[in-house]
Amino acid sequence: MLIFESLHLLIVSASWVAHQVRRRRKVIEVNLIDQDVGERLRALRFQHRISIGELASRARLSPEQIVCFENGELRIDARIMLRLCKILDIRPIEFFAPLYAKQATKNQVKRRHTDKAAERSSRNHAAL
C-alpha cells in the first residue's frame, strides 16, 4: 500500500511539474500583436491618468487582468475591448490605427530588405 501511495504521489507531482512548464512556456510565447495591443492600452491609460485599479473597476475586471492585458499575456476579447475603448473615450478604429501603421512600416522594411537581397542575388548571378 505504501508503494502504491508513493507511486501515485510521484505521478501527481510529475503531472503538476509538466503543467507548470507548459504554463510558463505559454507566458514566454507572448504573441507580438497582443504585446502591441497591451502597450497601446497602457499608453492610453497613462494618457488619461487612470490607475490600473480604477480601469479594472470601471471595466468590471480584476487589476491582474489589466496587468496581463498590458503585458500581452492575455488576449483581450472584443466585448472587453469595446468596454475599455468606451472608458478610455476612444473608438476601436482609433485604438488600432497606430498598431496598423506600425505593422505596415514593419512590412515595408521587410519588403525593402527582400528587394535588396533579390537585387544583390541578380547582380551576383549576372556576374557569373
Q: Tell me, what's the shape?
A: flat
Alpha carbon gap, first and last residue? 78 Å
Largest sheet: none
Class computed from helices, strands and strand pairing: mainly alpha
| CATH class categorisation of the largest domain | Mainly Alpha
Using the 3D structure, state the CATH architecture of the largest domain: Orthogonal Bundle
User: How many separate domains?
Assistant: 2
Poorly predicted runs of 5 or more residues = none
Q: Spell out the helices and strands N to C.
A: HHHHHH
Rg (CA only): 23 Å
Number of helices: 6
Oligomer: single chain
For this structure, what is the CATH homologous superfamily of the largest domain? lambda repressor-like DNA-binding domains
Give the DSSP E fraction (strand runs of 2 or more residues).
under 5%
Average residue-wise pLDDT: 80
Name the helicity range.
over 70%
CATH topology of the largest domain: 434 Repressor (Amino-terminal Domain)
Tell me the total number of β-strands: 0
Domain HTH cro/C1-type: 41-95
GO molecular function: DNA binding
Pfam family, one: HTH_31
Region (Disordered): 107-128
